[in-house]
Amino acid sequence: MATPIEDYGLIGNCETAALVSKSGSIDWFCPPRFDSAACFAALLGTPENGRFLITPKDSSARVTRRYRDGTLILETTFETKDGIATLIDFMPKSGGCDIVRLIVGESGRVEFQTELVIRFDYGVSIPWVRQLEDEPGLYAVAGPDGLILRSPVALQGQDMRSSGEFTVAAEETVSFALSYTRSYGRTPAPLNPKQALAETEAFWRKWLHPCPSVGDWEEEVKRSLLTLKALNYEPTGGIVAAPTTSLPERLGGQRNWDYRYCWLRDAAFTLGALMNLGYYDEAKAWRDWLLRAVAGSPAQMQILYDVTGAKQLPERELTWLSGYGGSRPVRIGNAAVDQRQLDVYGEVLHAIHEARLGGLTTTRHSAAVGRVVLEHLESIWREPDEGIWEVRGEPQHFTHSKVMAWVAFDRAAEIAASNGDAEIAGRWRRNADEIRAEVCVRGYDEKLGSFVQFYGSRRLDASLLQIPLVGFLPPDHPHVRGTLAAVERVLLDGSGLVMRYETESGVDGLPPGEGAFLACSFWLVENYVQQGRFSEASALFQNLLSMRNDLGLLAEEYDPRARRQLGNFPQAFSHIGLINTAVRFARAKHGQQLP
After folding, report:
1. Which has fewest Cβ within 10 Å: 46, 334, 349, 478?
2. Mean of all residue pLDDT scores within the chain
3. Is-above-0.85 flag for pTM?
4. Other beta carbons less than 10 A from residue 128's beta carbon
5. In terms of pLDDT, which residue wins out, 169 or 561?
6. What are the coiled-coil residue ranges (predicted)?
């Protein structure tokens, strides 16, 4: 039985991350950066594929956990019949790639067991493991990869794993420090675990301190903001969609994708979330990553890149992994990198526009990127594409894609007009007007009284909820009201959450069935807010907040019948949706002014 996705907590150092289960097992860790090969891959297989377990010998121990206030320091408390102890997990901001695990005795005595199973290359490569010579601990190496574990607890090797037992009494602390290293490089210096804990706590609290209160949802917004920061690859400014790959959108199904990359469509949403809360340094770093990533021929612009902005992300399957809960295949890389998705042009121009409105200095580079992107879009916007959901069926004229092409020209026209360039502003405005006229005819079904998923279709799509949010039509327009009513009628499941689209249609080229996509439900809340339907907005927003796990984390999707999270975890898009919805709600209902 796979550990429920919501039973995991996230720790990270703004370069990579690890997932820790309620039982104290680190089941996913990709050092030294988000998209590196995992050395603990039990999340997508079995313990034999790698994990680092620290848990009481008493399997009936009561477990509670929390993040230390204002930080990404995870504290898991185990209460047994003989005592209470807390496992503290964190990744220091030390410039290395380390995980520190401290077991602190609270009362009585608690007996623990630990098991370290290291499997490099996504759970397949068994390393050589030896004892350290000058200090207690282990050194594991396979090819270019190495892990060093420093701890006073003696571990014994058996059956290609290292295990041990220890007892912690009240006011005692037992430490484990795990460091990733290149096998051909220098051995990382030992950490001082207690000092590293103090420095890590100070870093997170200092970073979070400027975050303003947002209506009634201060703590929820702060936790989402910390999660977003944890998904930031600080050396470049890129923000990954999630730190995991192949967590299924349907348990046992094939909708399993690698999300450890940076999507252009997240750009405008992310910039808005960061700037709404006053985090301009991170917003600027993300904007600059975006401009570097798309530099070059606009015809070669991709929908996603790796954390450095590199383009080559070939998709392949890891056949030796059984998949989360038997959900296969397990994929790394992402073939969507080769798709055409017209909406990303709108997201890029909207991001540049948002950055400008937020006070970020417009550079010559950003202006040049905008110009060449628009000139290319001018020649291709009439063509079909794979759309926002990256369908693997036939390309279509997706309504949302055309709307976002309109966004690109609309925002560019605004920028040009503000710069006093009336000729260019007029050129982009003519393109925007042509797209709007076409969408309102070909993307709208009179009998349904609603916009549709793609031209000629009678199917609905949650991406249509973006139409008033991006300003394509006002919230009180009859077409918008009709579309909202149709989405409520067709795409709401029994729990009031929004499905992305009707997967039974086969438009995506995949077997039907998935959970409710949480970002879409946040879009519905924003639509309610725009229309002044505050009681409905509040009810749905509270419902969404209740679907976070006990640590405040959200995956990509939610299965309301099984009451469990689905998809990659934690998902930036979900947390961005939470932040932006809370901000819109606070401004509309309370008149709150934010940075």
Report:
1. 478
2. 94
3. yes
4. 10
5. 169
6. none
